[in-house]
Every structure is written in structure tokens, then in C-alpha cells.
Design a protein that fits this description.
Largest sheet: 6 strands, mixed
Shape: elongated
Number of domains: 2
Structural class: alpha/beta
Radius of gyration: 23 Å
Strand content: 15-25%
CATH class of the largest domain: Alpha Beta
Order of helices and strands: HEHEEHEEHHEHEHHEEHEH
Distance between the termini: 34 Å
Number of strands: 10
Oligomer: single chain
CATH architecture of the largest domain: 3-Layer(aba) Sandwich
Mean pLDDT: 78
Length: about 325
């Protein structure tokens, strides 16, 4: 992607769209109160604990016992106290004040791409920053995993501002592919496994990636995470991945993908490219719908806040 003209970035937190500055991520603090509506997908299982979200559950923190009143949930009756006193009593629960929030941020090689406004990796960091500031605004505990092709940073949930700054710092560093101690080659599947060991039951989980590495193993792990947590999938996309411009037929551009490379030579090949991309997207949407997982598409072709206004309450 050629570096966009500076005028494109006027009044946006983006500097170049190719890399990320910490100041860009800090600028989302002012948007921490933005409230997003998750899509109204059916909840196949209630969460443990209570949280003001689309998936409702009863608070699990016991508060007190009082006399049963008409309209109380019979499931909350304290049978031990009722038997001891001879009068019906019901348990009251108070809302849990904190909830662990985990962000999985994919900055691997397929994310280092953008055809119009910004790299997908840059958009992922901006989205992660917004979600991080929202987490802090709610006084929830923030943790997560940030990874690129060679390195991974794992952060346990903390409610301190220091934890948020550490998370933003790792996003900036790994987006620029700054090498820490190199480990084995990282992948989405490997990080989902890592996340499944890190999360606590009743957590809110945000998965941020282009999901180019999504396979059956990843689906199984996402479904496993979904069973006891609220999972939201944020797919970072670029228009060029779904539809190739017609002028590419005349320019004889070379196309490279995870499955190989070649030249686009006729309209049939162009149509096949678009059909395959559309089918992959439909399969992903069907699988996530089957699991009852909210799915957002965020394009790297436009500023983040312009797109999220459509989801704001």
C-alpha cells in the first residue's frame, strides 16, 4: 500500500496508516464511553455471573436473605432458612462489579496489508485501543494476547491503568514487528489454545483478526471459549480481498495468496477469485451464527470511528 496523502488523515487518530504510534492509541481514551450494541444473536448458554450485556445472567455474588415476596423467582428461595424459620425466604444477589475482558489481537503477516486507507494490522491496533479504553471506563479488568508471526505477548487481566498502558505498548511494538525473544512460529490456532488456558469463566472475549488462518481446529477452540464466556469476533477486512479491480486484467498483476501465486489473465479468473472469497465469508458467518457468536466486519479502508458509529447506541 502506498502511503496515503496527509489530507486523508485530517481529524483522525491515524498518522500514516502503515505503522502505529502510541499517541494514536492513547487518543481513544476520549471515546471510552462509546457504547456498542452487539448483534442480537441467540444465546445458546447463559454466562456465569451478571454483566450488562446482550447475554443476560444472574449475579453470582450473594448479598443477603429476606422474606419471600410475591413475584420473587422461586429458584432463589433459600430452603435452609425457610425450613429453619418456617417462613419462606429468598436469596438476593448483587451485581458483579468487575469482569475480566480479554483481547486477542492478530498482527501476523497476513495483517500487514492494506490497499486504500490503512494496513489491517493498524486497524486492529486502533480497535484494540478503543476496546481497552472502554474496559477501563467500566472498571473491568483487562488482559489479552497480542502476537505477530514471530512473537507473542501474554498479559494477565488487571484493573490498573498500568496494565492498559502495557497492553497498548505491546500492540504498538508488535505491529511494527519489533522482535522480542523469538519463540516458535506463531499462529491463530496456537494463540486460541493459549487463550483457552488464560481466560476465566464468565469473561468477555474479543477476537481481532482477518481470520485468514481460520480452520476447523480454530472453530472448535472458539466454540469451547464461547461455552462459558461472551465471545465477539472482529474481522478486519480489506476491499481488495473480496473484489479485484477490473484494471488488473490489463496490468497483468501477479496475485499472491496463502495457497500460492499466479497472474490474473482473464475475467473468468477474476470471477473465480471473487466467488471463492464470497464463499469463505459465508462459511465463516454461518459457523459463527451456529455458535451464537457476534460477528463484526471492520474495514481497513476507512477510519475506525466512522464505521463504529453504525454500532453505537
Amino acid at each position: 500500500m502506498s502511503t496515503p496523502k496527509n489530507s486523508i488523515f485530517t481529524n483522525t487518530p491515524y498518522t500514516t496508516g502503515v505503522d502505529v504510534q502510541l499517541s494514536e492509541l492513547l487518543s481513544y481514551k476520549q471515546h471510552g464511553k462509546m457504547s456498542l450494541n452487539a448483534k442480537r444473536l441467540p444465546a445458546t448458554r447463559k454466562l456465569s455471573g451478571n454483566y450488562l450485556s446482550n447475554i443476560k445472567g444472574r449475579g453470582m455474588e450473594f448479598a443477603e436473605v429476606r422474606h419471600y415476596q410475591a413475584g420473587d423467582d422461586v429458584r432463589s428461595i433459600d430452603w435452609a432458612v425457610t425450613a429453619r424459620t418456617g417462613k419462606a425466604h429468598t436469596k438476593l444477589f448483587q451485581e458483579e462489579k468487575e469482569r475480566p475482558v480479554f483481547l486477542l489481537v492478530d498482527l501476523s503477516d497476513s495483517m500487514i496489508f492494506g490497499s486504500q486507507f490503512a494496513f489491517k494490522s493498524v486497524q486492529a491496533c486502533h480497535l484494540a485501543a478503543l476496546l481497552s479504553w472502554q474496559t477501563k471506563q467500566r472498571n473491568d479488568r483487562l488482559g489479552g494476547i497480542v502476537f505477530n508471526q514471530q512473537n507473542v505477548a501474554e498479559l494477565k487481566p488487571t484493573s490498573r491503568g498500568k496494565g492498559l498502558m502495557s497492553f497498548l505498548h505491546h500492540n504498538q511494538m508488535l505491529c511494527q514487528k519489533v522482535a522480542f525473544k523469538q519463540t516458535q512460529k506463531q499462529s491463530l490456532l496456537l494463540q486460541l489454545k493459549r487463550l483457552s488456558h488464560l481466560v476465566q469463566t464468565g469473561s468477555q472475549i474479543h477476537l481481532i483478526s482477518d481470520f485468514s488462518q481460520l480452520d476447523e481446529g480454530c472453530y472448535k477452540l472458539i466454540n469451547l471459549l464461547r461455552r462459558h464466556n461472551q465471545v465477539t469476533v472482529w474481522q478486519i477486512t480489506d476491499p481488495l480481498e473480496m473484489q479485484l479491480p477490473k484494471k488488473m486484467l490489463k496490468a497483468n498483476f501477479k496475485i499472491t495468496s496463502l495457497k500460492g501465486s499466479g497472474f490474473l489473465r482473464n475475467k473468468n479468473q477474476q470471477h473465480s477469485y471473487q466467488t471463492a472469497a464470497h464463499e469463505r465469508q459465508q462459511i465463516m458467518q454461518r459457523n459463527l451464527l451456529k455458535y451464537g457468536i457476534a460477528h463484526y466486519e471492520v474495514s481497513a479502508a476507512n477510519p475506525l470511528l466512522e464505521q463504529l458509529n453504525a454500532y453505537a447506541q
